[in-house]
Design goal:
- With 316 residues, the protein is of the alpha/beta class.
- The protein folds into three domains: 63 residues, Arc Repressor Mutant, subunit A (Orthogonal Bundle), CATH 1.10.10; 131 residues, Periplasmic binding protein-like II (D-Maltodextrin-Binding Protein, domain 2), CATH 3.40.190.10; 96 residues, D-Maltodextrin-Binding Protein, domain 2 (3-Layer(aba) Sandwich), CATH 3.40.190.10.
- The protein is built from eleven helices and twelve strands.
- A five-stranded mixed β-sheet has the order 4-3-5-12-6, sandwiched between helices. A five-stranded mixed β-sheet has the order 9-8-10-7-11.
- Helix 1 crosses helix 2 and helix 1 crosses helix 4.
- The chain starts with 18 loop residues before the first helix and ends with a helix.
């Protein structure tokens, strides 16, 4: 005997909830737009709209509100989204594991990374992974550490590469849910115009920045947190703010002001109008670290990626 809930149909009726419908809902609410979700999933917009409507009918609740600024989740959607995300991840892992068992070695690694990750260890690891698993696909977003952490916790990223500083937690309440793998070590420095009074100074103190023109990083950057901590009790004069490290260096080179920089970035070099001043603080020891959510099952492709990250870090 088969017990069927009211409102459902069997496979012959074709109205049972599908994994695809959950994927469409997750993408629409994450991007805030049916159009963007359709573009990301490479399907037509009417298809994604109709399937989300069918999902609403199957569940008997309204899941999205539609307006001129896109789509937003309803209360019902907020309640079920953790289960939707878990189901989407489970389906993806099921397909990838089945492919691995059959010898196809298919898979996807969804990665969020800070610029320091893209410019240090990541190129070598990606090349090695694609050589070993030529059919693995990468989906990569680059941004500040806070964006990467939130993406890992929400399930949007399988792995994140972030900048870590000793004693400075960007998202303290969330760090307990994340496992860190330190990979590459660098250091924070001040980038000043050549000929500046601080250039070559080996006994720097935060008070030396009193009244200096400063170039600040993005608010969600861990460099911003470090800069603000260093300037406690110092009257800061912020003349420019940018999330782009290369733009900050260009401003220094032009004599606009001083910025904080990470030596793991290609743009952090002395010469050509720029001098680097080491910061003599314990928290200035920067590292690029991989992060994953604790106690989360990982696909074969993600496990291979983490293995290659660890191997590359030993010889970097």
């Amino acid at each position: 005997m088969v017990i069927q809930q009211s409102g459902d149909r069997d496979s012959r009726g074709g109205n049972a909830m599908r994994f695809a419908q959950l994927r469409y809902l997750e993408a629409a609410l994450r991007t805030g737009s049916f159009r963007q979700a359709a573009k990301e999933l490479d399907i037509s917009q009417p298809t994604i709209t109709n399937q989300v409507q069918r999902l609403e009918e199957d569940l008997g609740v309204i899941l999205v509100t539609r307006g001129t600024k896109g789509v937003r989740p309803t209360y019902a959607a907020d309640r079920i989204m953790p289960h939707v995300v878990a189901a989407v991840q489970a389906e993806r892992m099921l397909r990838e594991e089945a492919s691995a068992i059959s010898g196809l070695k298919l898979g996807t690694v969804r990665l969020g990374t800070v610029p320091a990750g893209s410019q240090s260890i990541l190129p070598t690891v990606v090349k090695r992974l694609l050589t070993e698993f030529p059919n693995v696909r990468f989906e990569v977003d680059e941004g500040p550490s806070k964006m990467v952490v939130r993406g890992v916790l929400s399930g949007h990223f399988d792995v994140g590469l972030v900048t870590r500083l000793p004693g400075i937690e960007l998202t303290p309440a969330e760090d307990a849910l994340i496992h860190h793998i330190d990979l590459v070590a660098g250091r924070l420095v001040l980038s000043v115009p050549e000929g500046h009074r601080l250039a070559g100074k080996d006994d720097f103190e935060p008070a030396d920045l009193e009244g200096e023109a400063l170039i600040f990083p993005a608010e969600s950057s861990i460099l911003r947190v470090a800069f603000e901590r260093m300037l406690e009790g110092v009257e800061a004069r912020i003349v420019y703010a940018t999330p782009n490290a290369e733009a900050a260096q260009a401003m220094v080179r032009a004599g606009v002001g001083i910025c904080m920089a990470n030596t793991l970035l290609d743009s952090t070099i002395s010469g050509k109008g720029v001098a680097l001043v080491p910061l003599p603080f314990e928290w200035a020891r920067a590292s690029t670290s991989a992060i994953v959510r604790k106690d989360e099952a990982r696909s074969s492709a993600v496990q291979a990626f983490l293995r290659l990250l660890r191997e590359a870090a030993k010889t970097y």
